[in-house]
Amino acid sequence: MFSKILIANRGEIACRIIHTAHRMGIRCVAVYSDADADARHVAMADEAFHIGPAPSSESYLKADKIIEIAKESGAQAIHPGYGFLSENTQFAEACEANNIVFIGPPSSAIAAMGSKSAAKAIMEKAGVPLVPGYHGDDQSPDTLRQEAEKCGFPLLLKAVAGGGGKGMRVVERMEDVDDALAAAKRESKNAFGNPDMLIERYLTQPRHVEIQVFCDQSGKGVYLAERDCSVQRRHQKVLEEAPAPGLSEETRKAMGEAAVKAAQAINYVGAGTVEFLYDVDGSFFFMEMNTRLQVEHPVTEMVTGQDLVEWQLKVAWGEPLPLEQSQVKTRGHALEARIYAEDPDQDFLPATGNLRYLSTPDESAHVRVDTGVTEGDDISIHYDPMIAKLIVWDETRDQAINRMVQALEHYRIAGVKTNIRFLHALADAQPFREAELTTGFIEDHRDLLFPKSKLDTHKALVLAAGFVLEQRKSREVISTDPWSPFARQNSWRMNSEYAQPLQLQVGDDIHDLKILERDDRYQVYVGGSVYNLTMRLDDDYLQAVINGHRISVHGNLHNDQLVLFYEGDTFNCTLYKESYGFEEMAGEGSLAAPMNGAIVAVQAKVGDKVKAGQSLVIMEAMKMEHAIKAPADGVVTDIFFAEGDQVSEGAELIAIEVTEEEAG
């Protein structure tokens, strides 16, 4: 077995690989960019090498530099993880040329599946069922338009070299094809260096079911159950599970055998995933093959009891597959939720910030957390905004869902927006519990997945006031006289009752509270009502009784920003002071950058008349494009940035003079 490997990746997957390698007695070499100097994967590795500036194009995508470091460190093999260079044919070839084992398939297999159109042709020849569409080499606009019309609508434009939802567009009408093609090609060229497209019929109620396959160097192959990854946003998976609910054993077997046939058709070696679209009538169609370990591989590990990274290392060393097909068994049900720094209420816009507070559920045989970050780390614009993967297992699907709901309630983050509340609503939604799964699940159930807060606003304000007061008490200066009121921070006054004022800002609203402290309890006045409050604060855990209702929350107070966590929900407020001088980031009729990123295109010029909803600026952040649209009809009066410029969240991009009709 290898004695030392290099991991050409970062974050969660680098930590995941190190965990197994160390268990097997293998030393690990990490690489890191400027942004990752203090990252968790660097601390976990036996040694680490600086590889370049923060942008991945100048660090984690520098194949020559990684090969050089592998040779310098004495690493016998390179594990690419997923993303970055994991499906790069030239990198696999460079490893082979330098006598370094690439822990993945041969470069020929990556090349065969790297082009989605070429992959379709190979699968068709191997007898694997395909979705109708166009997978040809002729990429002229006229040909693509003709093929789009021939395919029929709705259709899916998909980057030939793509993945992760990038370079993909669903098109409903012929008149939208040109704009969608231009956007998808541009996004694909930026992300993969290849603008070529393929066209497929877009199934309206499909499920995304994929098969984990493994092949060894002798050509033997097995499949390790299937995963359902239907719950997606922007064609990116959000919640995955194994096994896929509702599949017959016949379908499961047919799909698995088709997947192994697909892998063997390209002389595959190592871990791979064959993805299928599964239609309502039980038919399934080859979609693509990912020639690497998948983000969602832990759900397969949980139901099979196998360590897939260990399998990768053994197969790369030349050992046979650890199990025959007849020995592969599954038990129970597993789910994985991807915890992202993003704002679901703003169309899942990626978020950046500092993880100033991070508390995760306790790990056990039922709960697993795969992460690459620790409290205090920054989520930057340079990499994918995934914070962690939360994986749960139990005997049945219902029990596993309950585990997931509970675990999400115990996952608490402050300092950056996350999708935890959304994931909680998703896992607990009745249609999900009943396995009514399609790739359109999120759009079909938006009302259920974006619920109102579980906390009554007044009760939340009372709890917020209680948390602030109890935390202040815990930080009081200890007096030589423990009963002296003079060192306390509760606005105590001699010979009078004094209702302490407190202003809390929630969104744009400022709430005036008055708090009267009496012995071991408080009276809180808010919105014309009075609330009797008793409570106890242990670190970040507040146990309170409000007018006889016992309720418990966790909280984090930092620089006057307070976040309360309650049953997967959050309540955010600010201790308001007049001196803060709160201002709007951008005035009426202007467009502000919703996140840090780069300007890809400016689609207007000064003097243009624009309509509400018209796309004016295309921004790129975290490898995804985002259209910034006109808030109202008007005339462009100023443009403050140009294509290629880097902008910060809140920066004014374009000023618009709103027309009289719109303004009035």
From TrEMBL:
- Record domain Lipoyl-binding: where: 580-657
Catalyses: N(6)-biotinyl-L-lysyl-[protein] + hydrogencarbonate + ATP = N(6)-carboxybiotinyl-L-lysyl-[protein] + ADP + phosphate + H(+)
- Matching PANTHER family, A to Z? CARBOXYLASE:PYRUVATE/ACETYL-COA/PROPIONYL-COA CARBOXYLASE, METHYLCROTONOYL-COA CARBOXYLASE SUBUNIT ALPHA, MITOCHONDRIAL-RELATED
Can the keyword Nucleotide-binding be found in this entry's annotation?
yes
* Protein function: This protein is a component of the acetyl coenzyme A carboxylase complex; first, biotin carboxylase catalyzes the carboxylation of the carrier protein and then the transcarboxylase transfers the carboxyl group to form malonyl-CoA.
Keywords of this entry: ATP-binding, Biotin, Ligase, Nucleotide-binding, Transit peptide
Question: What residue stretch is flagged as signal peptide?
Answer: none
Boundaries of each ATP-grasp domain copy?
120-317
One GO term in the molecular function aspect is: ATP binding
Oligomeric state and partners? Acetyl-CoA carboxylase is a heterohexamer of biotin carboxyl carrier protein, biotin carboxylase and the two subunits of carboxyl transferase in a 2:2 complex.
> What is the recorded name of this protein?
Biotin carboxylase
> What pathway is this protein said to act in by its record?
Lipid metabolism; malonyl-CoA biosynthesis; malonyl-CoA from acetyl-CoA: step 1/1
Cofactor names: biotin
Q: Which NCBIfam families match?
A: PRK08591.1
Per UniProt, residues of the Biotin carboxylation domain are 1-447
